[in-house]
Design goal:
Radius of gyration: 23 Å
Mean pLDDT: 90
Distance between the termini: 33 Å
Helix content: 40-55%
CATH class of the largest domain: Alpha Beta
CATH architecture of the largest domain: 3-Layer(aba) Sandwich
Largest sheet: 8 strands, mixed
Strand content: 15-25%
CATH topology of the largest domain: UDP-N-acetylmuramoyl-L-alanine:D-glutamate ligase
């Protein structure tokens, strides 16, 4: 009989006590006991500091549009645990999750009894994903790296169809390196002998490390950082022109996720699919590629809700690079649009003024100083646009940006009062600190005056808010 949600949670939490430990010894032993299900899968392995979740989703949906059965493994989850393991648009069901979890946990506890290194929670869930994809007989599995690459649990994959490194920047410096080159070395660990690696826009010091690793593994390097010509960018997504790396023909692509960084992510995903096609690993038409791209969406990535006349934005900008992408997208989609009079539609209300509220909660083990400095620039951009564009525009409007500091539900959270002080010291107008439940309740009360409300920071925070918003809707 299948377990209920509480039993599943308890089974997973048992292994949390063993911590988050990098290394392959534990999961290799566990998978051997389980019959090495990963060896029967065709896997696309996706790593990188930022963008790996979006690139994974783009590839997943493009393959699905081509008629393939596809699994996708991502972390962390936003609303429900099951969303980490998905096949053909459906999350793993509780009975299947509990059955496979029980099988993996049984072997892990046998390892514990034998005095062997005990698998971590992430080891267990990764093993469950591999078993599930084998059971479902998927044509492909898109596997997102958890942390780093070289010593990540997912790196038991020996012969991927392709490896992808989306981006490299400073993050998790206490775990995988304090310099770009050190982090690049860890990320490059997913490159496998004779298998192509597709790389995004990497700093030179990172690219040098990745290319050297690829050469040593006799792997071809395909560059996904290619020129993009933007046609349209708004609340519905973006249209852009990209040239096929093999035919050199230009095509127009449309995506539903917002931000220039998502166009770059889409370009990397397109290059990955084109590369796999050149190896005859997949067979897709241009129309299938386009259809898959347009269908792709990821929860909490500059995701827009409309509620009682308010635009509500959720963005899991959980590190420095993510915060830069958030501010850039907010500038292009929210602030700049507020200063330009356009035809109204169901998704965009044009007003004579805009009050913007930014609600932020972050983890203390991130580079908080740089993240808050970047976030405060959103308010400075508002002032520049108000001075240079809004006062001369047809709307003649004004924009105000206020901040509220809060906390995600995590032991690693940064105290909301500390966050408030950081924001204020950098010139931000923080109106208060508040708990997230109080904030969501106040959207219909004291925050109703704000035309646009943007939640930004930890994915734990975004998950909490999204669950509450969808429950209300």
């Amino acid at each position: 009989m299948g377990k209920n949600k509480n039993d599943i949670k308890a089974s997973i939490e048992y292994f949390e006590k063993f911590g988050s430990i990098l290394g392959l010894e534990r999961i290799e032993s566990l998978l051997k006991r389980l019959g090495n299900p990963q060896e029967d899968l065709k896997i696309i392995h996706v790593g990188g500091t930022n963008g790996k979740g979006s690139v994974s989703r783009y590839i997943y949906e493009m393959l699905r549009a081509g008629g393939y059965s596809v699994g996708i493994y991502t972390s962390p989850y936003i609303e429900v645990f099951n969303e980490r393991i998905e096949v053909d648009g459906e999350y793993i069901e509780n009975d299947q999750l509990s059955e496979l979890l029980e099988a993996a946990a049984k072997e892990a506890k046998e390892m514990e009894k034998a005095g062997q290194p005990v698998p971590t929670e992430f080891d267990i869930i990764t093993a469950v994903a591999f078993m599930y994809y084998k059971r479902k007989k998927v044509d492909f599995a898109v596997i997102e790296v958890g942390l780093g690459g070289r010593l990540d649990s997912t790196n038991v994959i020996k012969q991927p169809v392709a490896s992808i490194i989306t981006s490299i920047s400073l993050d998790h410096t206490d775990r995988i390196g304090t310099t770009i080159a050190e982090i690049a070395f860890e990320k490059a660990g997913i490159i496998k002998s004779g298998r192509p690696v597709i790389v995004g826009n990497l700093p030179k010091e990172a690219m040098d490390v990745v290319v050297k690793k690829a050469e040593s593994m006799k792997s071809s390097t395909v560059y996904g950082d290619v020129p993009i010509r933007i046609i349209k960018e708004d609340e519905l997504g973006s249209e852009f022109v990209l040239r096929d790396v093999f035919s050199m023909k230009e095509s127009i692509f449309e995506i539903s996720m917002m931000g220039f960084h998502q166009m770059l992510n889409a370009a990397v995903a397109i290059r990955a699919v084109e590369t796999m096609m050149s190896y005859n690993a997949v067979d897709l038409t241009l129309e299938q590629i386009k259809r898959g791209l347009k269908k792709s969406k990821v929860k909490g990535r500059f995701e827009i809700f409309r509620r009682n006349g308010q635009m509500i934005v959720l963005d899991g900008a959980h590190n420095e690079a993510g915060m830069k992408a958030f501010v850039n997208t907010a500038e292009r989609i929210v602030i700049r649009k507020s200063c330009v009079k356009e035809a109204s539609n169901d998704f965009s209300e044009k007003r004579n003024s805009d009050n913007i509220l930014v609600i932020c909660g972050v983890l203390k083990d991130k580079d908080i100083d740089k993240m808050t400095e970047i976030l405060i620039d959103l308010g400075q951009k508002q002032k520049r646009y108000e001075r240079d564009e809004c006062t001369n525009s047809a709307t003649g409007g004004n924009i105000t940006v206020d901040f509220v500091s809060t906390e995600p539900d995590s032991e690693r959270k940064l105290n909301k009062d500390q966050l408030k002080n950081l924001l204020e010291n950098k010139g931000g107008h923080v109106i208060e600190t508040a708990d997230i439940l109080e904030i969501v309740k106040s959207l219909d009360g004291k925050y109703a005056k704000y035309d646009k409300v943007m939640f930004v920071g930890s994915l734990y925070l975004i998950g909490e808010v999204r669950k509450k918003l969808t429950a209300q809707n």
